[in-house]
Amino acid sequence: MNNEKYTYLSLWIFLVFCTPLKAQEDRPSFVLDVPYVATPENIVDEMLDMAGVSAKDVLYDLGSGDGRIPIRAAITVGARGIGIDLNPERVREAIKNAKEAEVTDKVSFYEGDVFEVDFSEASVLTLYLFPEVNLKLRPRIQKMAPGTKIVSHNYDMGDWEPDLTKEIMGPDGRKHVLYLWKIPD
């Protein structure tokens, strides 16, 4: 009987103290403000086209996921691209995708919090973030250099009127809305 109590007590101690620690190890050490949702290729192309991205541009993609926007800009027009994502798994995937596309000389990907990263060198800024995240970033974005172009996928910036809005159909038949702002001179 005593042995049985000891076994139950040992099991209880293990479950209470060890299992939560193991489960905590499996959890990411960050909290995502926005879930990862890949932007369809035709939407990526339209975003780059709306911003008039060229080889002279430095494109920052906040919440860059698998890196498809900076990689596509590097492939199509030779633009330099920087992707920032909070999720280390997405950053590793983006780096792998850049290697496969042979554009590692043009693009870089970093793990970081978009609220803490300096993206002021961007001439083009791309976003696929939630409205509340866009609004939180808006004061910093509006202080960017005159002529900087910002393209947001599906989410606006509150009462900041975009210079251009476009609706485009995705390959799945769903409507996507793109917004473009240009920092005034």
Automatic annotation (TrEMBL):
Keyword Methyltransferase attached: yes
Top-level taxon of the source organism: Bacteria
Give yes or no: UniProt keyword Methyltransferase.
Answer: yes
Q: Which parts pass through the membrane?
A: none
What EC number(s) are associated with this protein in UniProt? 2.1.1.-
GO terms (molecular function) for this protein are: methyltransferase activity
* Gene Ontology biological process: methylation
Q: Cite the Gene3D superfamilies for this sequence.
A: Vaccinia Virus protein VP39
What residue stretches are annotated with the Methyltransferase domain?
A: 59-122
Q: Which UniProt keywords apply?
A: Methyltransferase, S-adenosyl-L-methionine, Transferase
Stored InterPro entries: FAM173A/B (IPR026170), Methyltranfer_dom (IPR025714), SAM-dependent_MTases_sf (IPR029063)
Record-linked CDD domains: AdoMet_MTases
Which protein, by its recorded name, is this? SAM-dependent methyltransferase
Species classification: Bacteria, Pseudomonadati, Bacteroidota, Cytophagia, Cytophagales
